[in-house]
Amino acid sequence: MNSARGLSGHPRGLYYLAFTEAWERFSYYGMTALVVLYMVNQLLLPGHVEHIVGLVRLRAAMETLSGPLSPQALASQLFGLYAGFVYFTPLLGGLLADRWIGQRNAVVIGALSMSAGHLAMAFDQSFLLALLLLVLGSGLLKGNISAQVGALYPPEDAAQRTRGFVIFSTGINIGAMLGPLLCGFLALAFGWHYGFAAAAMFMLAGLATYLTGYRYLPARVARTAQLQRPLEPQRPLTAGEWRVIAALLAVIVIAVLPSISYTQHFNVMPVWIQAHVTLAIGTWHIPVPWFQSIDSLTSILSAAPLLWLWRRQSERGAGLGDITKIGMGSWIAAGSNLMLAGAIYFAGGRLVHPIWPFLYCVGLGLAFMHYWPALLALVSRAAPARVNSTMMGLVFVNLFVANIVVGWIGGHYERMSPMSFWTLHAVIGVAGALLVMIFARSLERVLHQT
Q1: How do residues 239-296 score in pLDDT, each as one tens digit?
Q2: Where in the sequence is the domain holding 341, given as residue range(s)?
Q3: 21, 46, 98, 124: least buried by Cβ within 10 Å?
Q4: How many domains is the chain partitioned into structurally?
């Protein structure tokens, strides 16, 4: 661990990791804000869909499971599969880094693959190849860069680690806020492919940032001594460590529900806004991709107040545990979806005022800041050192499952009323919050033994 300190007593490496992730999220969310609309409005329509290499066979395989797919349903399921595997491959990337190449090398290779994927996105023919490169690159980058954040702090400094993950998540949200704004503007002003090309350039900027701070970052997480002696037998995990792993897996599974409630705004929400929201304000037309910047902006603006509030609560002995924060995030995500369903109901078939999707995204930003940094910090702190990166990869499997489910639900969007669609996501969020209420105490007893 490099002990060099930066601002606010945090390791200097934290800020290089946060800025790297900001650039990477800029490129990812800039592309994400465009890709569903791009598929629905152009790529999957006659005259373009025929050019996509490999899509005929993939579509046929998907339709054997779901029946005929409209362009919207196909776009939703394709995006769900892509976004899901973006978050599944970090498990494999964590294993690869833990056993062979180390976290630093994995992040560099992943950034190069993602840059190539964003460039390939600029051409219709290579659309599926682009998605594959992005999936593989993300697998090497995401879990390993998060594991490096946790490795910057000593195991006993749980509070500082949680604050470090909040700073890291703020970097995520800066990129996630700016990406849809710039890439959305370029796509609407000059064409879809300009937006995708901009995403590639910012991914390369993230790689440059990471390489600049390379010496402040741990090459491997908590396993250096073992990896220097590969022929020495490894100590098996103890019964207590297996109990901790089981408890963490339970928390990850429960957190799938707020992830579903939160994540649908990347998939179906742009399509719903395009058809059901008043976008004209005078002579100005609100670009649909810009709505995906709102929850990220909310997360940025709420980070400092939430850190202050949580610190004050801890000083008074009433601090919220990480599992409780996950439950709070689930309640907030549920309320945001229910509010959107209510706005649709009271609109009575008319176009919905843009203030309601705006407030919906604000609520999701607050939900994210409660549940996601807490989940990352909990797993980073409590996971046994030998499987730390692997467990961080499993955190992202949470989002793999969530996105697959979100894509499947989105495939039924045209068969449901919009009010029913968003009410369903509110119910899913409530279910996650109730599970936290039921199991939090017993899970915390196991995890506090670490």
Answers
A1: 888 898 999 999 999 999 999 999 999 999 999 999 999 998 888 888 899 999 998 8
A2: 7-224+237-447
A3: 46
A4: 1
